[in-house]
């Protein structure tokens, strides 16, 4: 008989008022729930205290991807009807896979215009209702996008983001994401400096976050859920720092599920991380044996999401759901602009 892990086992009740709509004025002033992955013990702290739970010789792994202002608002050339294009992945120089709304009115051949600076043609329908879109413009595409595009905030955030940089980590460098690696939003340069001063190494990897990470799990048996491929890169210096920490008895603590999925995808059976580029479709759920990861900094995730399943693989489903229930009782802030959790 085929194994079954039901998505309903990863449910919890979340009051709508706990969904954070705005970033805090100070990144590091968020709260931090500490979960002992072995005992299930829960403790409450401020995020600024995180250095106190790290040790000299540990390695903190951070995803330095940068979110593109990937949401374009324009109109159909022939009718003037409003359209929204959300860039997901560059396929060729000027051809992108994108989500287009309204999709039914943007069939192959449709021409779109954005602010007079950018034109596009829908080439073909892509998987799961997406579109391949070809762009025409003058100059550098990223500069045009910077003038016209908006930050692609998740649909559960309804407030306008006043400062687009607050949806970027302070170490964001490599452009290409459709969403932020939100666990990293809590770090300031000062806090990262404090971590380094105590002898913790910081290794930067890149995984460009696609919307597939946030697509709901539709299959009741989660083993039937298809993960979407996301591009990653691990540079030699990062691989060396991670491997050296493991060899020296230090812990590898990943900041965010994206950093976790990157290092686990690039590791061999002995837990050695290889430098290089690739795409990963890794789906981590309870029963997974971690090769590299020892600890995880993460935000609070949606019920029945693949992200919640990953955290449950590390600390145990019952421990994680008990911690989430405690977070709800203590009125922690949830999701992208919410509070953080350290599982270690």
- Average of the residue pLDDT scores: 95
Q: How widely separated are the two ends?
A: 34 Å
How large is the radius of gyration? 20 Å
| CATH class category label of the largest domain | Alpha Beta
What profile does the largest beta sheet have?
A: 9 strands, mixed
CATH superfamily of the largest domain: QueA-like
Let me know the number of strands: 17
Order of helices and strands: EEEEEEEEEEHEHEEHEHEEHHE
What spatial order of strands do you see in the largest sheet? Answer: 2-1-17-16-14-3-12-13-15
Second rung of CATH, namely the architecture of the largest domain: 3-Layer(aba) Sandwich
Write the layout of secondary structure elements.
Layout: E1 31-35, E2 42-46, E3 59-63, E4 65-67, E5 71-76, E6 82-90, E7 95-101, E8 111-114, E9 118-125, E10 131-137, H1 141-148, E11 174-177, H2 189-197, E12 201-207, E13 230-234, H3 236-247, E14 252-255, H4 257-265, E15 276-280, E16 295-299, H5 306-315, H6 317-329, E17 340-343
Parallel strand pairs: 1-17, 3-12, 3-14, 4-11, 14-16
Antiparallel strand pairs: 1-2, 5-6, 5-8, 6-7, 7-10, 8-9, 9-10, 12-13, 13-15, 16-17
Helix pairs in contact: 5-6
Give a summary of the structure in a few sentences.
The protein has helices spanning 141-148, 189-197, 236-247, 257-265, 306-315, 317-329; strands at 31-35, 42-46, 59-63, 65-67, 71-76, 82-90, 95-101, 111-114, 118-125, 131-137, 174-177, 201-207, 230-234, 252-255, 276-280, 295-299, 340-343. The chain is an alpha/beta fold and 344 residues long. Helix 5 (306-315) packs across helix 6 (317-329).
């Amino acid at each position: 008989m085929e194994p079954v892990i039901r998505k309903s086992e990863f449910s919890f009740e979340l009051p709508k008022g706990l969904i954070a709509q705005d970033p805090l004025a100070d990144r590091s002033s968020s709260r931090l729930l500490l979960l002992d992955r072995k005992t299930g013990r829960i403790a409450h702290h401020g995020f600024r205290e995180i250095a106190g739970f790290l040790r000299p010789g540990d390695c903190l792994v951070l995803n330095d991807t940068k979110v593109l202002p990937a949401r374009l608002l324009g109109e159909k050339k022939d009718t003037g009807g409003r359209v929204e294009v959300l860039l997901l992945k560059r396929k060729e120089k000027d051809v992108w896979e994108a989500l287009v709304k309204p999709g039914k009115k943007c069939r192959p051949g449709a021409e779109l215009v954005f602010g007079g600076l950018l034109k596009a043609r829908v080439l073909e329908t892509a998987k799961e209702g997406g579109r391949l879109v070809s762009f025409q413009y003058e100059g550098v595409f990223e500069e045009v996008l910077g003038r016209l595009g908006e930050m692609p905030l998740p649909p559960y955030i309804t407030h306008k983001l006043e400062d687009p940089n607050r949806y970027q980590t302070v170490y964001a460098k490599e452009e290409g994401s459709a969403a932020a690696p939100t666990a990293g939003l809590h770090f300031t340069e000062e806090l990262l400096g404090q971590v380094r001063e105590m002898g913790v190494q910081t290794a930067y990897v890149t995984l460009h976050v696609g919307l597939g990470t946030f697509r709901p799990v539709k299959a009741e048996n989660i083993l039937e859920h298809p993960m979407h491929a996301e591009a990653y890169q691990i540079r030699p210096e990062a691989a060396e720092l991670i491997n050296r920490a493991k060899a020296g008895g230090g812990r590898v603590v990943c900041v965010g599920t994206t950093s976790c999925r990157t290092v686990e995808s690039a590791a061999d059976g002995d837990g050695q991380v290889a430098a290089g580029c690739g795409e990963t479709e890794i789906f981590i759920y309870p029963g997974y044996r971690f090769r590299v990861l020892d600890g995880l900094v993460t935000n609070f995730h949606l019920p029945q999401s693949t992200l919640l399943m990953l955290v449950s693989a590390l600390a145990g489903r019952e421990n994680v759901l008990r911690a989430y229930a405690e977070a709800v009782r203590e009125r922690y802030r949830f999701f992208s602009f919410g509070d953080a959790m350290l599982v270690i």
